[in-house]
Structure formats: structure tokens, C-alpha cells
Amino acid sequence: MLVDTHCHLDAAEFDADRIAVAAAAIQAGVGLIVVPAVERANFGAVASVCREHAGCGAAYGIHPMYVQRAREVDLDVLRETVLREHPLAVGEIGLDRFVEPRDDAQQEFYFNAQLRIARDASLPVLLHVRRAIDPILKQLRLCPVIGGIAHAFNGSRQQADEFIKLGFKLGFGGAMTFPRASRIRELAATLPLDAIVLETDAPDIPPEWKAGARNTPDQLPRIAQTLASLRGIAVEEVAAATTANAVAVLPGLARIH
Q1: Tell me: the pLDDT tens digits for 157-211?
Q2: What pTM, to 2 d.p., does this model score?
Q3: DSSP 3-state assignment of 180?
Q4: Residue 31 parent element (H or E)
Q5: Percent of the chain scoring above 90 in pLDDT
Q6: What is 2-255's CATH topology?
Q7: Rounded CA Rg of the chain
Q8: Fewer CB within 10 Å of terminal CB in the chain, N or C?
């Protein structure tokens, strides 16, 4: 079995064929899918998808690229939702230093507030870390949480080691499958295997063989095969290890059916 630790199955890109997409993932051996929210407005959609599709578990949070649409009351709703729903994690949260225009102070306000919610609820977090790894590590040291996943990790080995020290796993997906992605592939090949989890970020970050097309969770086995090839080990070992890693960092996965 494989675990897709980051898949936006609630996204509009799946409205026409979500049932078929979820069924194809199960058929491919993807037994568990983590579905993170991105703003208050889609908390309900995420909850519905996870109720309706076997093997799906929710995370709730306000994505840094959506904070311009957020209000402070949304944080109260998030806290209430976390206490009521007992999700797998608080996420997708973090910082984004790539997209322009942006408001760094606003992003940091919502990130810090959501770290406190996760800390108070003893939940892990799903982190968006694009071009913002050092500021995120700084905030994690100021407000420690029980761990989580640095989604779509693309930092240095030193930064990877710092996340690992803080109890985090590192998410690898479609970007790793591109031969020119030398830094990501080097990390995937050399990091401790117990630090790695797999993800698709579907419908985004498609693998090399689907470049420019919609990504789907049934692509995870080929992504796993890429990781196995980079490490020179059997894909069965990759599947077993990454599944164990996902359950270790997101203990709520053990209750998903």
C-alpha cells in the first residue's frame, strides 16, 4: 500500500470525475489519501470528500496564498473545526515567498496563529514551504509543534536535517521525476529513508510523464518507482517505508478506512 500525503481531491479540477479518480487510486494501490484544505471556504468540501471516499482523511488550514481572502474569524472557525473533527493535521499552512504580489506580514500572522492551534490540539502540520524554509524553521522553533510534513520539499540538505530534528518528514512527488531536478533527486537518493513520505499534490505538480496535464493520485506508484530507482532499492521497500513514515508522522491515518 502507498499513502498520498498531499492530494487536493476536493479541487474543482476533479468535479467531473472525482469518483473515477478516487477509484483509480485505490486500484493502483494508493490506500490512503490526505486531503488538505486551503481556506475556510473549502473546509466543508474537504470534509465531504473524506466522508464519501474510502481511505481519505482531512486536514484543515489556511494556505499562505489564500490569506488575502481570510479574516481573523476564520481562525476561530479553524480552531472549532479542529476540535470537532479531529483531523489528521492542521494544513495546508506555511509561507510562500514566490508568488507576487504578497503580504509577508499577513502570511506570518496566519501561520503563527495556526501553529498555535496545532500546538494546542497536539496535531501535526502540513507545511507549504516554497522559498520560505528558513523563516518557517524560525517560527517552528518559536512555536514548536509535534511534527508534520514539509510538503514539496526543495531545500538544502542542511535545511532538511533541521526539519528532521524538529520531528518532520519531507514530502517528495512529481518534481522528483524530472531528470533535470538534480537537487531534489540528490536529496531523495541520500536522505534517511525514514525521513521521506510520498505525495502527488494532485491536481498540481504533475510528474515528468504528465507534464502540463492534470495530476492524479493514481500516479503515486510510478513516483514511488522513481524514488526506488534513485535509491537503488526495491519499490516494495519504498512503499513499506514511506507508508510507515506517513503513519508515524500522521498517527490519525491508522483510523482511516
Answers
A1: 999 999 999 999 999 999 999 999 999 999 999 999 999 999 999 999 999 999 9
A2: 0.98
A3: coil
A4: strand 30-36
A5: 98
A6: TIM Barrel (3.20.20)
A7: 17
A8: C
**Residue 257's pLDDT band (cuts 50, 70, 90):** confident
Q: 129-142 as b/e, with b when 16 or more CB fall inside 10 Å?
A: bbebbebbbebbee
Domain boundaries, the chain: 2-255
In 10 A of CB 34, how many CB atoms?
Answer: 31
Which residues touch 9 (CB under 8 Å, ≥6 apart)? 18, 21, 22, 33, 35, 49, 53, 56, 202, 217
Q: Which three cell numbers stand for residue 89?
A: 493535521
The whole-angstrom separation of Cα 201 and Cα 91 is 13
All 3 cell numbers of residue 7? 492530494
Can you read off the three cell numbers belonging to residue 114?
A: 495556526
C-alpha cell recorded at residue 175: 518534481
